Amino acid sequence: MLRTEHLTYKYEDNTMALKDVEINLNNGEIIALIGGNGAGKSTMFLNLMGILKPTKGIILFNGQPLEYNKKYMYDYRQKVSLVFQDPDKQIFHSNVYDDVAFALRNIGLPEDEVKRRVDDALIQTEAYDFKEKAVHYLSYGQKKRVAIAGVIALNTQVILFDEPTAGLDPAMTRGVVKIINTLAKEGKKIIISSHDMDIIYTLCDYGYILNHGQVIANGSIEDLFSMDEVLEKANLSQPWLMKIHKKLGLPLFRDEEKLFDYWREINGASSYRG
Ligand SMILES: Nc1ncnc2c1ncn2[C@@H]1O[C@H](COP(=O)(O)OP(=O)(O)OP(=O)(O)O)[C@@H](O)[C@H]1O
């Protein structure tokens, strides 16, 4: 699978965005990459995609270092894909359907297979209703869903999500969380960055905390969010379920439904208004 060794990346203006970063996707199913603004998350994703080339260190896919030539990258990007933080960096075509179909046509899939995959991805992301619409008329949230549809249609083994829910309303956010869970259940490896710690906590089983380009902690999600000092140093907060656990002494639950079930059980259904 995908891992890095001593990954270091320096931008042209000498900004050291990543220093000696070691991550390994085998450590979990849905992996979190978290850190405050400017910690290096997007730079990490661009390196993992081969869009940026490490200044030092290597990225290994299935045990072999990435190669930075056209042929290798053409194959690699059918196995590893990225949902960019900014959908405008991902959407190139003027029409939604053609944009989602682009990469599939590029790899030479027959048009009926392209249609099946594109329609399915647009239905999953609730973007089907505007599939004929011009991209420049779409709202930010709609563009984001088109960008996610493009990656779903590609059906790669590894999917990197850079801030997939930023700018989405609560209903769409729940939709994206559901999509990511479904992709993981299908066996895909996922790395996700988000400033929403509740989403990270609900979705991910393992994580890395980046601070000024360095991994300052890694471990199971429960362990990571128990490290008060590390979270403070990295400008992160605890998920609300973790706060309830720590401050009220309630058991630790992975999602709110389990907390509500527990509450119903200990207090009787009558005191529960949900
Ligand atoms: N093209 C660039 N040239 C120079 N410096 C850059 C460039 N892109 C990013 N940086 C710098 O690299 C560092 C890491 O930025 P990056 O965008 O990877 O962080 P991030 O964790 O994704 O932040 P955010 O949460 O704000 O999106 C920052 O100091 C940023 O200013």
UniProtKB/TrEMBL annotation:
It is a peripheral membrane protein. GO terms for cellular component: ATP-binding cassette (ABC) transporter complex. It is found in: Cell membrane. Keywords: ATP-binding, Cell membrane, Membrane, Nucleotide-binding, Translocase, Transport. It holds the Pfam family ABC_tran. The keyword Transport applies. GO terms for biological process: cobalt ion transport. CDD domains: ABC_cobalt_CbiO_domain1. GO terms for molecular function: ATP binding; ATP hydrolysis activity; ATPase-coupled transmembrane transporter activity. Signal peptide: none annotated. Residues 2-237 form the ABC transporter domain. InterPro entries: AAA+_ATPase, ABC_transporter-like_ATP-bd, ABC_transporter-like_CS, ABC_transpr_CbiO/EcfA_su, Co_trans_ATP-bd, ECF_ABC_transporter_ATP-bd, P-loop_NTPase. Belongs to the ABC transporter superfamily. Probably part of an ABC transporter complex. Responsible for energy coupling to the transport system. Part of an ABC transporter complex. Responsible for energy coupling to the transport system. This is ABC transporter ATP-binding protein. It comes from Alkalibaculum bacchi.
